[in-house]
Amino acid sequence: MIRQFISRQFLFFLLTGGTAAAVNFGSRIMYSQWLNFSTSVLLAFITGMITAFVLAKLFVFKASQQSIRRSAAFFILVNLVAVLQTWIISMGLAYYLLPSLEVKLFVPEIAHAVGVVVPVFTSYIGHKRWSFR
Questions:
Q1: Which of 23, 50, 51, 80 has the smallest C-beta neighbourhood within 10 Å, fewest atoms?
Q2: What does the buried/exposed string (b/e) look like for 20-46 if buried means 16 or more CB atoms within 10 Å of the residue's CB?
Q3: Which stretches are transmembrane (predicted)?
Q4: Which run of H or E residues covers position 90?
């Protein structure tokens, strides 16, 4: 199980995923100018997901023989799990854990950053096995 995370493919997944995460994180800040935190997190996730699909197809799983339609369908399913992870963690940290620890500065940023990082491993496995096999 650990071996799949020690590979060139996983390194490229981390790089492209990091780029998509930066898009996700930055767009959440932008969306928050007009929308509440919860909605902004969800919209930012979609923005990052589109970025991640394009980059993964071009640079990580380029040998995939699946059609774009099938890859996109599985990509969305894998990311539904990831968005749920991201949202639950972000909300839990922002509204419960960080306030209970008396954290007052950058609460939405910290909560969202942790929420974005957590699904990296589950997403890699899902995309490798289903989205881009």
A1: 80
A2: bbebbbebbeebbeeeebeebbbbbbe
A3: 38-60, 72-98, 110-127
A4: helix 68-92
